[in-house]
Amino acid sequence: MRAKKDLKKYSNLTLKVYYRIIELMLHYEIVPGQRLVFIDLAKQLGVSRTPVNNALSILAQEGYLDFVPNQGYSVHKLTKKEAENLYEFREVLEVGFLGKAIRNMTEKRQRSLEKRKLDYDEAISSRVDRRMFVLDTEFHAAIIDMAGNDVLSARYRDVCQKIFLRFRTEDLQMNRITEIKNEHNELYEAIILKDVERAKELVRLHHKASQRSLFPIIFPTD
What we know:
Layout: H1 12-26, E1 35-36, H2 38-45, H3 49-61, E2 65-68, E3 72-75, H4 80-103, H5 107-123, H6 131-145, H7 150-164, H8 174-192, H9 196-218
Antiparallel strand pairs: 1-3, 2-3
Helix pairs in contact: 1-3, 2-3, 4-6, 4-7, 4-9, 5-6, 5-8, 6-7, 8-9
């Protein structure tokens, strides 16, 4: 999600609608390709048309929505090339700042990272839900947070969100969820040991495994 300072020029009501629409996308109540009618959204959210229209405009600028003149807004469908670019950018951010994150690690930040790891572990059940992707993102974002760059942290979360908001996570196999848990444990141990090169390699392997498991779901005909 974009840094908060970039959104300060908008009213509180516009921001409230903005985050509410993101939430609807997160819970798949608004789906990729769906046309959005701001009049209907205004009724659904219990607000006037103006903040809805403003929020949709922001989301379109950020790439979450497409706008066609005389047709309005629709939820953007992720292309394979876009997904590859997002994954590449996410990996560059995480690997590029991993050394600084480890150097800046404090006991407090280590506890925060461990908590994110445990949050993911404890959320594992007999089925896959979208919350697992949020928790996976927060574990990796906690690593980025240790670098101490708020803009970087916000950008990283935004990239992750652009990936998982646009497909049904429920089709992911449970064995991948368990693999992610194991990958988190390995990465966490490497970070605690301050083994930067090992941690970088584990991040790269994690992203490759993620693409192998997700792309056949997102792009089944490719």
